[in-house]
Specification:
alpha+beta, globular, 33% strand, 248 residues, 9 strands
């Protein structure tokens, strides 16, 4: 199970070790989920199942998503934990860094850590349905998530947010609104590098959610401007990946 003393690197490696068993259950459930979604008409569709890994003791939420009729079935694996009476929900994956000089691409382990407060605010400010249970709130968040842009922080965007919501170092823009949080790189000292395990993890901590209808016109204009810059960087990133891969 996940404990408060574990570093992000420990958490990432614990989830990574569980992934093989989890993938077995994801694949086993796929045909059942396809049939279930076939009986539903409204998009996006999601279905969640709870799973406890027998060895690690970590509780997981296995989330199945279908955005639209043409899209493939997507899956998300979210670890659940209660540390010091606070709920945390953790997903993991890999980010990619490009070295143009060496013409190579390296994968960086990434942890996305949400505390319960984030999803409470998302339920209150975006879904506006207090009766929803936490698994449904998480399911709706991921199934509606079609964009996640990291914005450069400027005064036009943050306005008085630090007075209202406390310290943060990152602003993510989604199609539903704004996520405030912190981003850091965790590399514990004297860690022994083992094959198949991470020794450095990028951590995104999501603290609270601000819905689109809470933004001022000035903030919307500033976010739109930064969003266009993000899109340009994204296209350049994809171009570099193709170039390194020898596809262009």
């Amino acid at each position: 199970m996940l404990t408060y003393s574990m570093t992000p690197v420990d958490i990432f490696n614990s989830i990574l070790q569980d992934r093989e068993k989890i993938n077995y259950w994801l694949n086993k459930s796929e045909s059942k989920i396809i049939k279930l979604f076939g009986k539903q008409f409204k998009y996006p569709k999601y279905h969640s199942e709870n799973y406890k890994h027998p060895k690690s003791g970590i509780d997981y939420m296995l989330l199945f998503i279908k955005q639209n009729q043409e899209s493939k079935l997507e899956t998300k694996v979210i670890a659940k934990s209660i540390l010091e009476n606070k709920k945390y929900f953790i997903d993991f994956g890999f980010g990619y860094n490009i070295d143009k000089e060496k013409k190579c691409c390296t994968a960086t382990p990434v942890l996305n850590i949400f505390d319960g407060h984030f999803f409470e605010r998302y339920k209150e400010r975006c879904l506006k349905n207090e009766s929803l249970q936490i698994d449904d709130v998480i399911g709706k968040y991921y199934s509606r998530l079609t964009r996640l842009n990291l914005l450069e922080i400027n005064n036009g965007i943050i306005n008085d947010w630090k007075e209202k919501y406390g310290e943060f170092s990152t602003v993510f823009y989604t199609n539903d609104g704004i996520c405030l949080g912190r981003r850091s790189i965790c590399q514990p000292p004297n860690i022994k590098v083992e094959q198949g395990k991470a020794n450095e993890v990028a951590v995104n901590e999501y603290k609270t959610f601000i819905s689109a209808d809470m933004l001022s016109d000035k903030q919307k204009d500033s976010i739109k401007e930064e969003g266009l810059k993000y899109y340009d960087r994204y296209i350049e990133h994809i171009h570099d990946l193709y170039k390194i891969g020898g596809l262009i």
